[in-house]
Structure formats: structure tokens, C-alpha cells
């Protein structure tokens, strides 16, 4: 039969472990007298190791360990009515900066059943917390700077759009005027996005607000008679990452511009509807008008820059594009289906 080691042997082993520990440790009796202290504890808190043993915790050093709440918790731990796990304290010493400590304590069975022993471990997290605060400050400052940059970019784009419009009024060539108008509309859509980004939180952009502002900007610059033509936005509460919102916004811009230019000739009245719906990782964007519909045969217009832009953007979103005749009118639908094996880059609804 294996014999139980004598209590004094167990106690001696515990003392050896405590003293040689690389972590600040205190071995305490149930009345909070120091039985042993690790050399690392003495170094960390500038205490002469020859003066520690036999003293109460409150008497160590210059009395800076006299913390009533800590003492109360240690006494409760010794009685078995409480435990100390990751208890945080501010350690203050005269003429020194406050240090932030995390302490843990538990009872030890060192073979002496007549006396309770406590092992108190101390971790100095002062530098760690300072680094965390610095990181938080940098993140906050960067967010403020980013918003300011986005605001300035939006203002600059507005100036560029105004210059393009002034140039369009001066040129004699109808073709050149058309190109300048198209450039103006595209710049305005990006300016609207920048304004929305400057007010968005957490890197997400709410699509209903963004599409509404975008279409208001497009309508103001392209619709001379709001009673004849209108743009409606029916979007759920989806919010997407900023880079995704840029691509979706450019797609909407190109499709709305195309509808305003081709779907309502001869002062024909009508409506363009932008709709977006998402479910989990799947989403659908559609731009529908009730105009003249799709020309057939030789009357069909050639694919232009706008079509190429839309197709390229849809590809980056791992989406599929479908063009359909709604009789009257035309619908362009872009869909992304995660179940079809596409890589998700889209949205958090």
C-alpha cells in the first residue's frame, strides 16, 4: 500500500514551488500571514525578501497591500464561502504611478489538515491596459479622420460635378455634351455615396437611406419635370459593407441613367423603381421602369459604357444579371445566391 507523504514534506514542496516561481506568488495562512513569497513577487514590488515571511499581508512593504476589500475576499476564500478569480485592483504607492493588477486566489491542500493555506497569484496588467487604451484611441482617431476625408471627398466631387455641368452648357457638340452629362451623373452618384459613408457606423451602409439619397441626387440632375418622371426606392433594412455599397450604388446609377435616357421618349410619363431584398446571404437588386420596353431587332441600341460597367460590377459581386420585358417597361434583376456556391461578399441584413 502506498503511504501518504508527511504533511511537512508536502508543505516543504509547496514552499519550494512558490519561492522559485517566475510569477508573483504569495503563500498565505488563513489569518493572512505570509508563509512564503516568490522572488518574482519581491522584485516586482520592490520588497526585501528577508522582511516578508511572518508578516501580515497588510504589513508588507510600506503598507500598500493594506486593502480591506482584498483582505475580506481572501478571508472568505479561506473559509470556503467565496473565491477570487481575476479580481482587479489598483495598486498605489507614494510617488509612483498607479499599477493595475489582476489577482487570483485559491486554497491549497499541503497536507496540513488543521490549517488552511492560500495561494495568491498577482498579474500586472498595467502596460497591457495602456496599450489597449492607446489602440482604442487610435481606432477612434482614425474613424474621425476617415469621416473627415470622406466629407472632403464628397465636397470635391460636388465641385467636379459642377465643373462638368458648366462645361456641358458651353460645348457645341451634342455628342460631347452627352458625354459630359453622363460623367456628371456618375460623379454625383459617387458624391452621394461619400456623404452616406461619412455618417455610417461600424463600416456598414444602410441601403435604403443610401439608395434614396442616390436617387434624389440623380433625379435632381436628370429629371426636369418631377411630375412626369419619378424614382421610387423600395428597399428592406439591409446594411452592407462599404465596398459592396459602392458597387451596388454604381449599378443603380448606371441602370437609372439608362432608363431615364431611353425608356421615356417624347415626354412620356413614367416611374423607375429600385428594389432590394436580402435573406441571409442571398440578395436581389432590381431596377424596373414602365417605359416603352426593350426595342427589338435593328432598333435595339448597342451596348455602351454603362452596360459594360454594370456587367463588370455584377461579376465582382458574384451575381447574375437578367433582363426582362415587363410589358410595359423593362426590368433588370441582379441576384446573388449563396446556395448556388457563390462566395459571399454581400450583406448583413
UniProtKB/TrEMBL annotation:
It comes from the Bacteria. It catalyses: ATP + protein L-histidine = ADP + protein N-phospho-L-histidine. InterPro entries: HATPase_C_sf, HATPase_dom, His_kinase_dom, PAS-like_dom_sf, PAS_4, Sig_transdc_His_kin_sub2_dim/P. It is an enzyme of class 2 (transferase). The keyword Nucleotide-binding applies. Coiled coil: none annotated. The keyword Transmembrane helix does not apply. Keywords: ATP-binding, Kinase, Nucleotide-binding, Phosphoprotein, Transferase. Its EC number is 2.7.13.3. Residues 328-349 are annotated as: Disordered. Residues 247-340 form the Histidine kinase domain. This is histidine kinase. It comes from Rhizobium indicum.
Amino acid at each position: 500500500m502506498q503511504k501518504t507523504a508527511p504533511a511537512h514534506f508536502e508543505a516543504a514542496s509547496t514552499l519550494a514551488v512558490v519561492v522559485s516561481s517566475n510569477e508573483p506568488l504569495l503563500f498565505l495562512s488563513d489569518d493572512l500571514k505570509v508563509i512564503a513569497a516568490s522572488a518574482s513577487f519581491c522584485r516586482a514590488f520592490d520588497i526585501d525578501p528577508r522582511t516578508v515571511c511572518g508578516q501580515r499581508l497588510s504589513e508588507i512593504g510600506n503598507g500598500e497591500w493594506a486593502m480591506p476589500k482584498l483582505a475580506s475576499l481572501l478571508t472568505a476564500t479561506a473559509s470556503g464561502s467565496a473565491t477570487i478569480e481575476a479580481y482587479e485592483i489598483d495598486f498605489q504607492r507614494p510617488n509612483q504611478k498607479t499599477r493595475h493588477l489582476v489577482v487570483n486566489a485559491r486554497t491549497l491542500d499541503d497536507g496540513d489538515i488543521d490549517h488552511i493555506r492560500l495561494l495568491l497569484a498577482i498579474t500586472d496588467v498595467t502596460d497591457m491596459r495602456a496599450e489597449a487604451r492607446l489602440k482604442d484611441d487610435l481606432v477612434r482617431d482614425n474613424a474621425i479622420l476617415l469621416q473627415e476625408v470622406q466629407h472632403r471627398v464628397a465636397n470635391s466631387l460636388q465641385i467636379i460635378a459642377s465643373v462638368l455641368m458648366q462645361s456641358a452648357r458651353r460645348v457645341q457638340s451634342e455628342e460631347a455634351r452627352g458625354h459630359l452629362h453622363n460623367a456628371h451623373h456618375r460623379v454625383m452618384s459617387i458624391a452621394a455615396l461619400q456623404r452616406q459613408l461619412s455618417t455610417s457606423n461600424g463600416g456598414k451602409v444602410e441601403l435604403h437611406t443610401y439608395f434614396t439619397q442616390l436617387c434624389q441626387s440623380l433625379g435632381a440632375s436628370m429629371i426636369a419635370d418631377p411630375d412626369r418622371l419619378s424614382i421610387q426606392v423600395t428597399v428592406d433594412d439591409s446594411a452592407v459593407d462599404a465596398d459592396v455599397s459602392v458597387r451596388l450604388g454604381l449599378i443603380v446609377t448606371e441602370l437609372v441613367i439608362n432608363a431615364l435616357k431611353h425608356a421615356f421618349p417624347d415626354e412620356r410619363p413614367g416611374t423607375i423603381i429600385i428594389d432590394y431584398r436580402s435573406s441571409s446571404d442571398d440578395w436581389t437588386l432590381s431596377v424596373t421602369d414602365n417605359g416603352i420596353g426593350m426595342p427589338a431587332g435593328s432598333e435595339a441600341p448597342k451596348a455602351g459604357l454603362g452596360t459594360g460597367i454594370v456587367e463588370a460590377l455584377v461579376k465582382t459581386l458574384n451575381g447574375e444579371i437578367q433582363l426582362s420585358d415587363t410589358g410595359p417597361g423593362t426590368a433588370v434583376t441582379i441576384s446573388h445566391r449563396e446556395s448556388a456556391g457563390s462566395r459571399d461578399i454581400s450583406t448583413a441584413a
